[in-house]
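Ops channel
N.P.: pipeline sanity check, posting one input/output pair.
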């Protein structure tokens, strides 16, 4: 495990402290979880952009042509 020194504005530190207390976790755990969530979101965008770049319009249209044309089920409207 690594240790970092993090400088926060007092207002942000105060709010993080309040949130950590409300969630019954340490400030360290709250910040670690928030960072992991942000990284996951950014990595998902990268993954989707990479997948989109490999896409082929013709293959998509061929796949869509296999879908039967019907009205949606009543519960799907």
């Amino acid at each position: 495990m690594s240790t970092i020194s993090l400088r926060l504005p007092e207002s942000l530190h105060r709010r993080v402290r309040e949130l950590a207390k409300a969630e019954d976790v340490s400030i360290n755990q709250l910040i670690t979880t928030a960072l992991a969530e942000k990284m996951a979101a950014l990595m998902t965008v990268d993954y989707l952009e990479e997948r989109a770049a490999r896409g082929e319009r013709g293959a998509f249209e061929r796949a869509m042509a296999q879908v039967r044309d019907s009205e949606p089920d009543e519960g799907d409207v």
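N.P.: looks fine end to end. The chain has one domain: 10-66.
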